[in-house]
Amino acid sequence: MKLAAIALTFVALSFPALSQERIAAPEGARVYIISPQNGATVSSPVQVVFGLEGMGVAPAGVEKEKTGHHHLIIDADLPSPNEPVPSDDNYRHFGGGQTQTTVELAPGSHTLQLILGDHNHVPHDPPVVSEKITITVQ
Q1: 114: Cβ contacts below 8 Å, ≥ 6 apart
Q2: Most exposed of 14, 50, 107, 125 (fewest Cβ within 10 Å)?
């Protein structure tokens, strides 16, 4: 048993974690939230429509120049630009190439922000992110 632990430690020390290679974003690329508008009061479910300029949308796993797919950040900060965008209730993935969604949100104030990810869900270099907006759900 001790020999196996030593072997695993050796392997971990011999192969440090590889960082994700980031793909360059085209100059002038921009992602934004078309609706709802910043400051809007809405009811749940909330329809969120994504906008993109200077790039195209491609599904996750499809490596195509000057493309990416949307990730919606709800009530959270931007993720690390050097790793794949997390996937949980705060970081929603749209790897099918979707350009809108409907989300259930509890009554109260919420923030929404978009970040584009490449075919591996890694943000571009520099990251293509929207302005963070605040909405109120009744």
Answers
A1: 31, 32, 33, 50, 70, 71, 72, 73, 129, 130
A2: 14
